[in-house]
Design a protein that fits this description.
This protein has 654 residues and is an alpha+beta fold. 31% of the residues lie in helices and 23% in strands. α3 packs antiparallel against α4, α3 crosses α15 and α6 packs antiparallel against α7.
């Protein structure tokens, strides 16, 4: 590899005549400064553009103004001699130190929060870290907030594999570099699995004399706003410019039937006093799908027993299935016996069967309370009066009110005796929607006061920090899952009060959630899992900064984004909701689907999709589609169909 540091071009080959002015008046203009071109706001420099090439490569730049604050920069490199390898770089340096920076879904201000060992800061062993565009939901997206400006950059989604590139954010005391590198690399290390690193890689590319490489970078600038609100302008523009492919999935009616089948045919379990659903299926060495044998019965999170049970009751009301009614009621009755004298609730039935003591987390607990309020109503529609369901939900809320700190913070987890284990993270917010529902039903102001204090506490963390944390129970890091409870709370507070401040809160939360959502389809070679089975990344979401892979979790907030679109008149939220729905319902088995040599049960779907070098190294490309047929995607699919109002909305095109 030729060292590039020695070969900064003295003559910046900008094609000034190609700078196309936007019809709208812009406060910005470009000006030559030595060997760079500076973006100016009057006499103030926002930042400067530089290009780095090795000897034997020439370059030309073309800048087009797409609107008053957005530019498309096209850099064309041409080999002037044969090169066995090369490294090309385009960098826009934001001329201000950053108080907040982000690589969406990868790093939020350096990932300082949490106990995980995901990449911290912007360097590894003193070297600026490069990240493949494949890890980012907007190709190569970088964002930095300086003293006056918020600068965002991203690349054009590659149309062919050889166009793959990488990005590197480089914050220091003088400014923040938004840098792009071709060919694709991750150096000096690649984050290969949870808390695990492998040596870095470079996809070496040769160039013959006369061959060209084109790198395209979008640049968007806006004034810095309080509580990271400049992010909205960046995300609006990124979505506007994003290609929006149509992804075909089963119609909503069929997805309902398949979800019910998976619950009844594959997940149903009876063991001792237990009647309910197993957490999911794994493939045995003999090639047979079997229910998981340990950690197998959970009320919410991955197990979603309460949600499945309500869906089966709804299936009875909709289709008259007595089997659905019997299994739904049996599940709810089984779990209703898990309430404790202090109001807490055993969230893992394994603890009851094994006579062990387990922790009780806010995620499962909040889901249990909210679902049992709903279960009380739906059971009545089915002809069953179960006051214990409602008492159970109120008991949870009463305990959490008594345990709440004065600043509004709930705990993240408790022991069955009510002692707090820890409070860090946004996960406590999973209690807030249930608390709002408790107030709506009872009129008890204690529930409303508790919910408001907790909501403001967790929302202020997002506004101040720019991220939420630790909703994914198998991580301790910045993530997306923790924000769904905030979004759901904002929408419920709006329904309760009619105050538009909650709609604005919902927008703040939704723009953050959008930083986890894929705005494009990635390209993979023939024989790759995604190519072989037609998986589209568009509309998918990454799990967390500690787990850099995609899953269909966002199915959970589809109804909220449909509603947000109605309330704001902004169609992007409907479009995004549909993109999520179609992404999250890919590769749902109809009972005949075979993936990687195994036919999958009807209604099943795997949890994880490895869009980047996650779970395997660049030299060892294992399957991108895993074989963990976990319960929760089907439960979220059914829950969304229950709450969407008109399921036909989900069959529409973007």
């Amino acid at each position: 590899m030729i060292s590039i540091g020695k070969f900064l071009s003295a003559a910046f080959a900008l094609v000034c005549a190609a700078l196309v002015s936007c019809s709208r008046e812009t406060p910005y203009h470009w000006a030559r400064q030595a060997d760079r071109l500076a973006l100016m706001d009057g006499k103030t420099a926002v930042g400067s553009l530089s290009v780095v090439t090795p000897e034997g490569v020439s370059h030309k730049e073309k800048i087009v103004a797409l609107d008053s604050a957005t530019y498309k920069i096209t850099c064309t490199f041409k080999a002037t001699r044969d090169l066995d390898s090369t490294r090309l770089s385009v960098c826009f340096t934001h001329g201000s130190p950053s108080h907040f920076w982000m690589i969406p879904s990868v790093s939020y201000n350096g990932n300082d929060w949490g106990r995980g060992k995901e990449p911290k800061g912007a360097k590894t062993d003193g070297q600026w870290r490069t990240v493949s565009y494949r890890r980012t939901p907007i190709p190569g997206a970088l964002y930095s907030e300086g003293s006056r400006y918020a600068v965002s950059t991203w690349g054009e989604a590659p149309a062919v594999e050889k166009d793959g590139f990488s990005c590197s954010i480089q914050p220091d005391e003088a400014g923040t570099g938004h840098c792009y590198v071709w060919p694709e690399e991750e150096m000096p290390v690649t984050y290969a699995n949870r808390d695990s690193f492998e040596p870095g890689f470079t996809h070496v590319q040769s160039l013959r004399k006369g061959e060209s490489v084109v790198m395209q970078v979008y640049l968007h600038v806006s004034p810095v706003l309080e509580n990271h609100r400049a992010l909205r302008s960046f995300m609006d523009k990124a979505w506007e410019l994003a290609p929006k492919p149509q992804v075909d999935v089963f119609p909503a009616s069929k997805l309902w039937d398949l979800g019910v089948r998976y619950a009844k045919e594959s997940l149903w379990a009876e063991e001792g006093s237990y009647r309910g659903f197993n957490i999911g299926l794994n493939i045995d060495p003999d090639g047979v799908w079997r229910q998981r044998r340990g950690g197998k019965y959970e009320i919410g999170w991955c197990g979603q027993n309460a949600s499945y049970a309500i869906s089966l009751l709804q299936d009875y009301l909709k289709n008259g299935s007595n089997e659905s009614l019997e299994k739904g009621m049996a599940t709810l009755d089984t779990w209703s016996k898990c309430t404790l004298p202090n109001g807490l609730f055993v969230v893992h039935y394994d603890n009851i069967l094994d006579k062990t003591v387990g922790s009780i987390d806010a995620c499962n607990l909040g889901v249990a309370a909210l679902n049992y309020f709903e279960a009380f109503d739906v059971a009545r529609q089915c002809g069953y009066d179960r006051p214990e369901y409602e008492r159970l939900a109120y008991g949870i809320c009463d305990f959490v009110v008594s345990d709440q700190l004065e600043n509004g913070c709930y705990a993240k987890g408790w022991w069955p005796d009510g002692s707090c284990i820890y409070r860090e993270g946004t996960i406590g917010c999973f209690i807030v929607p249930a608390m709002i529902e408790a107030y709506r039903r009872s009129g008890n102001e204690a529930y409303l006061s508790s919910a408001q204090k907790a909501y403001r506490y967790y929302l202020s963390e997002l506004e101040e920090n720019g991220y939420t944390t630790a909703g994914a129970l198998d991580t301790w890091c910045i993530d997306k899952e923790s924000s769904i409870s905030l979004l759901r709370s904002a929408m419920r507070f709006y329904d309760l009060t009619g105050s538009t401040e909650y709609v604005d809160d919902a927008l703040t939360i939704s723009y953050y959630l959008s930083t986890w959502m894929w705005h494009y389809d990635e390209i993979y070679p023939e024989g790759d899992n995604f190519t072989e089975y037609g998986y589209h990344t568009f509309g998918g979401t990454s799990v967390s900064v500690q787990h850099n892979h995609m899953d269909p979790y966002a199915l959970y907030w589809v109804p909220e984004w449909f509603r947000l679109s109605e309330l704001t008149g902004d169609d992007q939220w409907r479009q995004k909701a549909l993109a999520i729905w179609k992404n999250g319902n890919q590769l749902v088995s109809d009972g005949t689907l075979e993936i990687n040599g195994h036919v999958r049960p009807a209604g099943s779907q795997n949890e994880a999709y490895f869009e980047c070098s996650w779970g395997f190294t660049s030299a060892d490309h294992s399957n991108r589609i895993n074989t963990w047929l976990v319960a929760w995607p089907g439960a979220f699919r059914l829950e969304t169909l229950r709450h969407i109002g008109d399921p036909a909305l989900l069959d529409a095109a973007l």
